[in-house]
Amino acid sequence: MRTTKLSNILLLVVIAALFFIPFLGRVHLFDWDEINFAECSREMLKLDDYTRIYVNFKPFWEKPPMFFWMQSVSMKIFGINEFAARLPNAICGIVTLVVLFLCGSKLYDKKFGILWALAFGGSLFPNMYFKSGIIDPWFNLFIFLSLYFFILYHWKRNGLQTEGLPKKPVYYAVWSGVFMGLAILTKGQVALMVFLLVLGSYFVYNKFRIFFGWGHALLFLVVTALVTLSWYGYETAKNGPWFITEFLKYQYRLFTTHDAGQAGFFGYHFIVLLIGCFPASLFAIPAFFKGRYTSKADKDFKIWMLLLFWVVTILFTIVQSRIIHYSSMAWFPITFLAAYSFYKWDRKEMEYKKYVGVLTTVLGGIIALVILAVAVIALNIKQLIPYVHDTFAQANMAADVKWNGWEGIVGILLVVTIVVGLWQLKKQAYLKAATTYFVGTGLVIFLAAAIIVPKVEKYSQAAAIEFFEQRQGEDCYVTTLGYWSYGPFFYTHKEKPENQQSYDEEWLLTGNIDKPVYFVTKVDRVDNYKKYNLLKELYRKNGFVFLKRELLSK
């Protein structure tokens, strides 16, 4: 039995690695988050300081260090590049699928474990984020594991299920605390907020009956604190409370206000989850309703997942900022519920609803059409320029990008996936349908990352990034005008400034500079800087204008 499970895990690791690792370095990191985080990790290495986070060689208190530790190790091994910045999340993808397989196998059986791993790995955003360089995949995994071990603790303590739980309750409480501590070290105390809100919701559902021991709860908090103090405590003891205080202030502001460009309508996260977690989001719908349960644990775990979904979506609907990955923690319950639907349909313990197939076909068809439209529009993009009234967008569209029409095969593959999957649903071949939908969608994302995304990136930011890369090793200053970017830091391999005046834009434009200065701005903003006579335009490309201020000879 152990040999079989190990072989299943190794096979899953190989398949996940083939899906998540290739093409990680094929496209530049995207502004803002990807480049921002990669730069923090680069500066960790540059400054040889792994206890405090910096960006542009100034303290950056918005995030704790766990993810940057991972990235800096990756960069130490593979160099300062896109592959190294994204590899930690590819590893997270592999680990996540193995974790879900093991959890699903423990909760139900191997079949369910495979379905859950398939649902997570074969849905749009969950798959795509494992190819990114942002923090949330690890953050979400640690929160999920903390909650999962607390559920096991609850089951063992209260006798809800003891089979397969050989350890004492304290064992599961400790591991829950360890993973919560890691989650807080990854992105902050919002992890504990989500966890406690889910526990509070379960407390209400449980008719206000205490389902945990106060001693165990205290132990959980102590273990969580000990893990987090490995950084919070050390940073405070070494440098005083300023950095941690600023970090906590930022976390509070994040929940009470929204940054520019991060506002959105009330139902934002529901739409994001519906589309972004396709196709799992639609297959999860039937599992939201009451069903026939085979055990107390069967019903209870589903309740926990439903509570997790509603806590995450409602909490981040209340939060002022509307950012896609804020609700990404809901991917775990959504993919569980999708796997649950297929599992119950296959066992004839839940009735298949035809509307699920219809909705999946409609939404999948729309997504496929969008992908096909990208290929068609790209082939004719220059003919569309006169109909666009934004100067910067017009210049973006004029980029010299080679499209041959074969890119549409990605959309065609999704159409085939939807058609075959629907036919299998009608034949009541539910496990085959699950494999078709999720593997097919995974292949669509794989091909899109290899074929479409690199070409699309050339329209948006590639010209500026390439200019930054050309400045590597040159003794100069590089900055942007009229817009913000982390590109000038990461892609120039910026050194720590010796002259603090270099942080002052006005000094770079008019002051007594000690090095040549390169400026990057956009075509719709360059007129704002014509009054600076010392600026010389080098060239324009894809909407960006590249300027230089020479060092005056003495």
From TrEMBL:
The protein's UniProt keywords, in alphabetical order, are:
Cell membrane, Glycosyltransferase, Membrane, Transferase, Transmembrane, Transmembrane helix
**Which stretches make up the Glycosyltransferase RgtA/B/C/D-like domain?**
63-225
**InterPro entries (UniProt xref):** LipidA_mod_glycosyltrf_83, RgtA/B/C-like
Where does this protein reside within or beyond the cell? Cell membrane
Please give the Gene Ontology molecular function terms for this protein: pentosyltransferase activity
Q: Which residues cross the membrane?
A: 9-29, 91-108, 114-130, 137-155, 175-199, 211-234, 266-289, 301-318, 324-343, 355-381, 401-423, 435-453
Major subcellular site: membrane
Q: How does it sit in the membrane?
A: Multi-pass membrane protein
Give the GO cellular component terms, alphabetically: plasma membrane
GO annotation, biological process: lipopolysaccharide biosynthetic process; response to iron(III) ion
- Quote any Pfam family the record assigns: PMT_2
Name recorded for this polypeptide: Dolichyl-phosphate-mannose-protein mannosyltransferase
Task: Tell me the organism.
Answer: Chitinophaga dinghuensis
